[in-house]
Design brief:
By secondary structure, the chain is an alpha/beta fold. The protein has helices spanning about 10-25, 35-45, 60-70, 90-95, 110-125, and strands at about 5-10, 30, 50-55, 80-85, 100-105. A five-stranded parallel beta sheet has the order 2-1-3-4-5, with helices on both faces.
């Protein structure tokens, strides 16, 4: 069964790049360019993982993460934060808010794919 990943970023080039790469690696990929689209897609599609940008207009990634965590339909979905913010306090906040990982931009593709595999390996062990 193919794993489904929801990629959320307000930068189209990042969104399309990740979509292409992840599809090439065999994942089903959904995309959202803002927080509202992300919440709707997560509730309807129930992805196996959300890659969530922090800095977005209107509703940032922190708000999206909080709303995903309080909704029974989406609270179990692992979320990895994607951000250009590299300060330790941002990493700590992400993990405290319930993110499973915090990936700094720019990221290496190898690092990103490795972290995705780690998330899925961990999720598989919990079942």
């Amino acid at each position: 069964m193919k794993r489904k990943i929801l990629v959320v970023d307000d930068e189209d080039d990042i969104l399309h790049f990740l979509e292409l790469v992840l599809k090439e690696k065999g994942y089903d990929v959904l995309t959202a360019s803002n927080g509202h689209e992300a919440l709707t897609a997560a509730q309807i599609e129930k992805p196996d993982l959300v890659l969530l940008d922090i800095m977005m207009p209107q509703m940032d990634g922190w708000e999206v993460l909080k709303l995903l965590r309080v909704d029974e339909e989406t609270s179990h979905i692992p979320v990895a934060m994607l951000s250009a913010r590299t300060e330790a306090k941002d990493r700590v906040q992400g993990l405290q808010e319930g993110a499973v990982d915090y990936i700094c931009k720019p990221f290496s593709l190898k690092e990103l794919l490795s972290k995705i595999e780690q998330v899925f390996a961990g999720a598989h062990q919990k079942r």
